[in-house]
Design goal:
Blueprint lengths: L4 H8 L1 H6 L3 E12 L2 E15 L4 E10 L2 E12 L4 E8 L8 E8 L2 E10 L2 E15 L2 E9 L5 E12 L1
Antiparallel strand pairs: 1-2, 1-10, 2-3, 3-4, 4-5, 5-6, 6-7, 7-8, 8-9, 9-10
Length: about 160
């Protein structure tokens, strides 16, 4: 019996590559609300674990922003049929009660996804690009960029994680 595309991906493809992100992580998150003006730098803890037999990864994290506790969850995976990384993200600060949906591509050391957000107070949607980059087996950087309706892209958050053994 031949293996299906998911089984092959899990053994030697994109799902295997994404699986290398799994683990316990701790680090520092920096936050910017305006270009080049650091608003906060705080400790962050996160867990990335495979779910649904490795089809997806779940990233649950908690930290603080300006002394206030927050938490978040992102689910991401690789859609084999459409050759795209997909992500859903919620947290108790940035997204309020919304869910940010993003889609993008696998990279050599992780992935990059793009979504958008808006609402009554934001008449033109803004973009939100998130990049996961596994520097080596014990160092992960997650960087998010705010993209104005005019296309100006600025760093919004950067989490520099180290794997906890």
């Amino acid at each position: 019996m031949s293996e299906n595309k998911f089984e092959i991906s899990l053994q030697s493809g994109v799902h295997k590559q994404l699986g290398t992100l799994a683990g316990q992580w701790e680090g520092i998150t920096k936050t910017w609300f305006e270009p080049n003006v650091l608003a906060d730098e705080s400790p962050m803890k996160g867990t990335i674990r495979p779910i649904m037999e490795g089809r997806f990864l779940l990233h649950a994290y908690q930290g603080s922003l300006n002394g206030n506790y927050f938490e978040g969850v992102a689910t991401f995976g690789f859609d084999i049929a459409n050759n795209k990384v997909q992500c859903s993200w919620v947290d108790s600060f940035h997204m309020g009660t919304g869910i940010l949906l993003s889609e993008g591509n696998i990279t050599d050391r992780g992935f990059s996804v793009l979504g958008s957000y808006g609402g009554p107070d934001i008449p033109e949607p803004w973009g939100w690009r998130t990049v996961f980059e596994l520097i080596d087996e014990n160092n992960l950087i997650i960087t998010a960029y705010n993209i104005s309706p005019e296309g100006q892209e600025d760093k919004a958050t950067e989490t520099v994680y180290q794997r906890v053994s």
